[in-house]
Design a protein that fits this description.
This protein has 3 helices and 12 strands. It has about 160 residues and is of the alpha+beta class. The protein has 2 domains: about 50 residues, no CATH class; about 80 residues, RNA polymerase II/Efflux pump adaptor protein, barrel-sandwich hybrid domain (OB fold (Dihydrolipoamide Acetyltransferase, E2P)).
Length: about 160
């Protein structure tokens, strides 16, 4: 089973309301349990990995911001930008290694397929590529922080 299949299975469990899915192959077994407030991934491989659903804090920040007039205007300004979102749960890194420069910085031009960050998930480093052509306007996540599925990572001005 490859990474994409596991991600699709996790998405299915979290969105469908199914409480548990088990899948067993030759030397690989995965059980995904969806509790009311957490998503757990348990493997029969050497390690057990538990993952939580999206944290309420990032979702709460935009709601709180829209309650006041000045931040609401800022939110409407940001609506013209393309949001690059995380395709998985993991740890966000802006550079390939600690001694290397960032993949992209604010003001950099990006094109589709260009690597803009990496996400470490289950000890695998996954290159995340831009899906639009444009200029990086804002980096929404700090380096080496945990991120959730579908969490906004970058704002890109496609114009």
């Amino acid at each position: 089973m490859n990474k994409k299949e596991i991600e699709e299975l996790i998405r299915f469990v979290s969105k469908s309301g199914v409480s548990e899915v088990s899948l067993e192959q030759k030397d690989f077994k995965i059980t995904i349990k969806n509790a009311p407030r957490e998503l757990q991934v348990v493997t029969a491989a050497p390690a057990v990995v538990q993952m939580a659903p999206p944290v309420a804090a990032p979702a709460a920040a935009p709601v709180a911001a829209s309650a006041t007039p000045a931040p609401a205007a800022k939110a409407s300004d940001e609506s013209k930008y393309h949001v690059v979102k995380s395709p998985m749960i993991g740890t966000f890194y802006r550079q390939p290694s600690p001694d290397k420069p960032n993949f992209v910085n604010v003001g950099d031009e990006v094109k589709p397929g260009q690597v803009i960050c990496i996400i470490e998930a289950m000890k695998l480093f996954n290159e995340i590529e831009s899906d639009v052509k444009g200029r990086i306007v804002k980096v929404l996540v700090d380096n080496a922080t945990p991120i959730e599925y579908d969490q906004p990572l970058f704002l890109v001005d496609p114009s």
